[in-house]
Amino acid sequence: TSFGFGVQESSAYPVFAQQNYSNPRAANGKLACANCHLNQKAIEIEAPQAVLPNSVFEVEIKVPYDTSLQQIGANGKKADLNVGGILILPEGFKLAPKNQIPTEVKEKNKGVFISPYSTEFDNILVVGPIAGKTHQELIFPVIAPDPEKNSDVKYLTYPFYAGGNRGRGQVYPTGEKSNVNVFGATQAGQITEITVSEKGESTVTITGSNGTPMSQTIPTGLSLIVKKGDVVKADQALNVDPNAGGFGQEESEIVLQNPIRIIG
To answer: How far apart are the C-alpha atoms of 173 and 168, rounded to whole Å?
Structure first.
């Protein structure tokens, strides 16, 4: 796969899921993206209700959000949101070959790189990170399988699943928190000192009722909502929630239609 690391500071990286989960859909139906993108935001799926064998069709994942919003980049600076998507098709369905993709879809998808999740799962497609402002709709050109050529495929109604995300995640695959978070007070007490480093990180010192000071660092770019002298509870938010994005998942159904039945 050719996902470019470091292309933009603020990214949604399906490659994180690809590296850490051999199958992105857990037994309970949760998609792996939701493990790092904790905020929920709705998506919509548009797809035909029925398709014929060997036919090429489009599945569209709509990832709407307020494009005037910006998020905080990994460097603490404001940045536009990127989007990413995942489409889990029934087995046998896959990304349409380039020479069978209609011209208008190619035009819409200029510069958009869709790839199979892995060699094992070519029925799972991923895209992103791409600029959210110009890609509120993610279009996946799909080719349907042919039961006459593949005995594992039947003329049935199949479920399929989609996920769409905008913005950076709250957790890295390592389990560490990103800077797109609310940081809570590590102990209850009074804020006795707030210092800001040259890089812009804030160090907040909270002195507990037993007189023990504890310091914690709030990453660059986050706005504090507390000041020196404030009394805080444990886990009380120290900064404004910077999260402008979110992940959503939906499921739908598609019928693989027998062409003979239509003629008859």
So the answer is: 12
